[in-house]
Specification:
Length: about 425
């Protein structure tokens, strides 16, 4: 067993292999990079911890606690190094109870990493703005946001569990709480709360085996005008376009392969998920089941650009309700609980939807392909009683058209349990 109490002693541990290294002091690495020998185990005394710097290597610990690497609920910047160092050294990284603020993206660049907490009601990772950030501010004086956790391209076998992932929700700068880059595989997200961002989880083309289980999504803010955030003269809203307000997005790109094998199950999407709860594009073999979605109201070009406040007022919402929805800042028209583009073999089963505008919206993908082979069954929708978003049902789809919007589905049969869709037991 080797006991380390100084930075000078730590600089020599690279030659130590297959031994236990006990950290018995608060060691500030400064800007140094320390490489640990193979097969070592790290232990920390009550006063032992690392701060700053960069640690490289692998250790035999079952997991590492970020507070042993200097993470603190009172720090705005030190938590970045703490998370990075823990991820560099160990496959399993624990975020204990508390709110840990971050000023840059947590990047997962090697396979087999698990980030986990004590439960989303206790363990929080929160993105904040760096005071040294010189990027353009938005109309509220906020600095540009960043994606909180990203999984690098081609990385596989990642788990993110039992955490709150939280941002600030700027109205002009976009960010996602988890971004999975192209070609990643076997990404499992479970028991997490996603709060106050442009979107919860976005998955890019070519990814496979994406599981999002038992999570909660709230305060997913619609970003008017898309990523550019172009504003009108009084800076109350952007001029055109829009993005965000999503819970889960399986993204598409022209000429790129879609997402294969996805499960979104047991999740709750609150009324503050402003646009789509689930938006899947160019994806195949996807199961969306046993989710609760309530209060989904947002935008679609069906209403021809009419002012949202006027539309909502026409269906009897009070000023208080309008104010609670913050429609003057977030929304311009309407959308649906689920939207898909050019997907294959999608099953939407046993979901509960309440108080929304529409259930389903489908179009071609960016390569002009229509989806096929859809199964919609045993979904219960309650309170979808407005006349907005109506459209003729597509071929092969049965149900009250107030609840279904689709352009046309070619290919496999689509089955909808119309009793449940009409809110009957």
């Amino acid at each position: 067993m080797i006991t380390v109490t100084t930075l000078a002693a730590l600089l020599n541990v690279g030659a130590i292999q297959n031994d236990t290294i006990t950290i018995n002091a608060d060691i500030d690495l400064g800007t140094d990079t320390i490489t640990l020998g193979s097969g070592c185990r790290l232990e920390f005394s009550e006063i032992g911890r690392f701060r700053n710097g960069t640690l490289i290597g692998t250790v035999t610990n079952e997991y590492l606690d970020i507070t042993d690497f200097g993470a603190s609920t009172t720090s705005d910047s030190g938590n970045n190094a703490a998370l990075r160092n823990a991820i560099n050294l160990c496959d399993n990284v624990f975020i204990p109870e508390g709110k840990f603020r971050l000023t840059e993206t947590v990047r997962i660049t090697r396979p087999g990493i698990k980030l986990f907490g004590d439960g989303y009601h206790q363990s929080v990772l929160q993105s904040v703005y760096s005071t040294s950030d010189t990027k353009t501010v938005d109309r509220e004086g906020d600095k540009r946001l960043f994606n909180l956790v990203t999984v690098s391209s081609g990385i596989r076998d990642i788990k993110i569990e039992d955490l709150t992932l939280q941002s600030k929700g700027s109205k002009t700068q976009g960010n996602y709480l988890i971004k999975v880059n192209e070609g990643a595989e076997n990404i499992h997200v479970e028991g997490c709360l996603f709060d106050n961002a442009t979107g919860g989880v976005i998955v890019y083309p070519g990814c496979e085996w994406i599981n999002i289980i038992g999570c909660r999504f709230r305060n997913m803010v619609f970003l008017p005008g898309g990523g550019g955030g172009e504003q009108n003269e009084d800076k109350t809203r952007t001029l055109e376009g829009g993005a965000g307000g999503y819970g889960v997005v399986f993204h598409q790109k022209v000429g790129k392969p879609g997402i294969k094998h996805g499960v979104i199950s047991g999740c709750v999407f609150e009324s503050t998920v402003i646009r789509h709860a689930v938006y899947i594009q160019k994806s195949s073999d996807v199961l969306i089941s046993d989710n609760v979605i309530y209060g989904t109201t947002a935008m679609n070009d069906n209403v021809n650009g009419e002012n949202l406040v006027e539309i909502l007022d026409s269906i009897g919402l009070t000023d208080t309700q309008l104010e609670a929805m913050e429609v003057t800042r977030h929304m311009t028209h309407f959308d649906y609980a689920f939207e898909y583009k050019g997907c294959q073999n999608v099953r939407i089963i046993n979901n509960y939807l309440e108080g929304g505008i529409g259930l389903l919206n489908g179009t071609t993908d960016n390569d002009g392909r229509l989806g096929e082979s859809f199964l919609l069954k045993d979904n219960r929708a309650v309170g979808f009683d407005n006349e907005l978003g109506k459209a003729d049902c597509p071929d092969g789809v049965k149900g009250d058209r107030n609840w279904i919007y689709d352009k046309k589905i070619n290919g496999g049969a689509v089955v909808i349990n119309t009793d449940n869709l009409n809110g009957q037991p």
